[in-house]
Each structure stands twice: as structure tokens, then as C-alpha cells.
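[job 0417] fold request received: VOC family protein
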Amino acid sequence: MARALHHLDLWVDDVARAEGEWGWLLAACGWQREEGVRSWLHPDGTYVFMEHSPDQHGTHDRLRPGVNHLALTVEDRARLDRVRAESTEHGWHELYADRYPHAGGEAHLALYLESSEGFEVEVVVEP
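[job 0417] inference complete; emitting C-alpha cells
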């Protein structure tokens, strides 16, 4: 089956900080860093590319029109718990911690994180 998403360009303000945060999270979810570029590749061929563009203006606000959040998958609850345990030391802030791992509903296992620039990522256990 063909992949559903070809790639995502992620525009950030602070590339060095974002590279550390996103690089860690993507690796924790099974993505591989591509040599020589600021890009991470998923086993299905989808990739995420990160840059700071001179065309950017303003700051990211997921509550304005545009993409609200990105959802990544992990294979099991143990991996989800590990990502949660390590996320803070890699610059991520947990959202809805009081409802972990069911903030999305009782049948949905997920972790909700926010980067230092306000990007939200939902990490979901793929059944």
C-alpha cells in the first residue's frame, strides 16, 4: 500500500533547539535521521524536513488556522511510557498529564506533548 503522506516541511524559529527536540521525538517513534540534511525518514518512506525559512513571519500558533497538531505512532504502551518518561529532558512539555494515557478517550492510548515553540504532537499506540 502507498504511504498516505509523502512529507512534511516543519518551519521553526530556533533550528538548533527544534532539531534537538524533534530529532529525539522522531527517533523515539522509529524515524531515522537522514545523513547531511535536517530530515527524518519513517520506515514507510514518509519524511519530515526541518528549516528556518526567510519567508517566515510571526510565531507558530496551533490555535490559528492551519495545522493544529501532528500525530505519530509507536508500537506499544511500553514505548509510549518510555517517551513520556524521557520527554521533559528533551524539551517537551506534557499536555493533559492528569488524563494520561486516555486523554483522547478510554479506548485511545496516547501521549500529548508540546515543544518549546508550541507545536503539539500526539504520540499514539497503533493497535
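[job 0417] notes: The first helix runs from residue 15 to 28. The CA atoms of residues 33 and 40 lie 4 Å apart.
[job 0417] exit 0
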